[in-house]
Write a structure and sequence with these properties.
Two copies of one chain form a homodimer.
Chain A (H helix, E strand, L loop, with lengths): L43 H19 L2 H7 L4 H7 L3 H10 L17 H8 L2 H15 L2 H4 L3 H29 L8 H17 L7 H15 L8
Chain A binds a DNA duplex (30 and 30 nucleotides) through helix 2 and helix 3.
DNA sequence: CGTATCCGGAACTGGTCAGTTTCGTATATG
DNA sequence: CATATACGAAACTGACCAGTTCCGGATACG
C-alpha cells in the first residue's frame, strides 16, 4: 500500500526488532543511526497535490514528471528519491484523494431518505466530486491495465461514495421508511453511476437539478417513495 | 464529418463547379480525369477494424500507427494516405462502431416494458456492449480534450443506446403501461450508466443478472411497475 | 567542522513514436 | 508501353519523456 520512501531514507531509528524484543533489552545496538540532512516530509502533500492538478489537466499519459516537479517547485530528483516511478507517484496521489472524502460517521441525518440524499448533493460537494471524477477520467484507460491503480481508485473514490449512500439507505430501512428487500448495493451506485456517465460521456453539466432529478425521479420512486407532488 | 481521403485521391471526376454550374453546361471541361492505380477502398473497413482491435487492447495513448498497420497487414504509408493523423483515424474508427448498433426500426416489441428491456440484454448484445465500452474506456481521457472525438463517441455509442431505451419507454407510455410524466431522458441513461460504472470503475462483470437486477430492482419500480413476486 | 544526506536545477541517456520518405512492385489510364 | 498513382515494407527524422546523474548549496549529526 505505502509506496513512498522507495529510497530507504536510511534504515534510520533502530534496528527493526525482527523477533522478540525483550523489554529492558536496549534496542539501538550497533546500528549507525541516521545521518545527514533529513527528508522534508512536509513537502509530500504539496507534491501529491501538484500531481493531482496535473492529472486533472492532462490525464495520466499526458502528465510528465517534469510538470509535477515544476508545479510543486521541486526538483525531479526529489520526486524520484521518494517514488520509484511515475505510476507509483500517481497511485499515491490518487490514494490521498480519500483524505477529503465524506466521513461515514458524520453523514447528514435529517430523518428522511430524501433529506439525507439531497444534503449530499450540496454545491461544494458537487464541485469536489466533479473535480475528482475528472481526475479519474484521465486514469480509466490505465485502470484496466494496472490492478494497483484500480484498487487505489476504488478505495479513494468509488467505495467512500458508495458507502455513504449505503449507510443512508440502510438507515431508511431501519426507520421503516422503505422496504427491507430493496437492492441496497445497486441503489448505492445509482447516483454515482449516472453522475459519471453524464459527466464523462454525455458531456453534460453535473448540476444540482440533474442530481435531484435522479433522486426524485428514479431512486426514491424505485424504493417506493412517491414524490409528494400535485 | 468524413475525414477519409485526406490525400485528395485526385480531384478526379469533374472540376468542382466553384460557382454557378448552369444546367446544360458541360462540366468535364479540360479536367485530366484520374490516372494511375486506384485506391482500394475495400481495405478501409479492415483498417478501421484493426484500429478498433488495437484500441480495445491498448487504449488511445497505447495505440501506435504501426500496430494498426501490422494488424491490418497494410503499410504505414497507406494509412497516412487515407487519414491525416492518428486522431483522424481513431475518430473514423469510432464512428464506424455505429454500423452494428441497434436499429431503431427493429427493436423488440413484446408488449410489456419489461419484456422489451430484457430482450435488449441478451448475451450477444451484452458481449458487444462490453467490447465497445472497453474501447470507449481507452478514449475517455481524450474525450475531454477532443470535441470531435467526443462527438464521435456520442454519435456511435451513447446516443444509439439511449435512443433504443427512449423508444421502449415512450411505447410503454403510449400503451398506458406507465405514467406519462416519468423522466424519459434520465431513465434512458439508467442502464447504460450503471453498466459503464460497474465495468469501468467497479471492475465488476457485466452479466445478465446484474442488468436484469437494474431493470427489476430500479428501473421498473421507478416507473411504478412492481415486480410480480412472492 | 567534517561528513552524509537532503534540496532545486539542469544536463544527459536511451527508448518510443508520429509522421515522412524511399524503394521496388502492382495496376490503372491513355 | 509510358505515365501516374497505390501498394507493403522499411529506413529515416524530430520531438518527447522516463529515469539517471551531476552540480552548488543547505542542513543535520557527531
Amino acid at each position: 500500500m505505502i509506496r513512498m520512501d522507495h529510497t530507504e531514507e536510511r534504515a534510520t531509528t533502530v534496528s527493526v526488532p525482527t523477533r522478540e524484543l525483550i523489554p529492558g533489552e536496549a534496542a539501538q545496538a550497533v546500528v549507525p543511526m541516521k545521518l545527514g540532512r533529513k527528508r522534508d516530509h512536509s513537502r509530500d502533500p504539496e507534491i501529491l497535490g501538484a500531481a493531482l492538478d496535473v492529472l486533472a489537466e492532462t490525464g495520466y499519459d499526458g502528465m510528465t514528471i517534469d510538470m509535477v516537479a515544476a508545479r510543486a517547485k521541486a526538483g525531479k530528483a526529489t520526486l524520484y528519491r521518494r517514488w520509484a516511478s511515475k505510476s507509483d507517484l500517481v497511485i499515491d496521489a490518487v490514494a490521498c484523494m480519500k483524505r477529503d472524502e465524506l466521513d461515514p460517521a458524520n453523514l447528514p441525518d435529517t430523518g428522511t431518505l430524501r433529506g439525507d440524499l439531497v444534503a449530499l448533493v450540496r454545491p461544494p460537494s458537487i464541485a469536489e466530486g466533479e473535480r475528482k471524477m475528472h481526475i479519474v477520467s484521465g486514469l480509466i484507460s490505465m485502470i484496466s491495465r494496472s490492478p494497483e491503480l484500480a484498487e487505489a481508485v476504488r478505495g479513494a473514490f468509488v467505495e467512500p461514495r458508495a458507502a455513504a449512500n449505503r449507510i443512508l439507505i440502510r438507515r431508511a430501512i431501519e426507520r421503516g421508511e422503505i422496504r427491507a428487500d430493496v437492492d441496497v448495493e445497486t441503489l448505492s451506485m445509482l447516483v454515482p453511476s449516472m453522475a459519471a456517465y453524464r459527466l464523462l460521456l454525455q458531456h453534460g453539466a453535473l448540476d444540482r437539478d440533474f442530481l435531484i432529478g435522479v433522486i426524485d425521479g428514479i431512486l426514491l420512486p424505485a424504493v417506493g417513495i412517491r414524490p409528494h407532488e400535485g
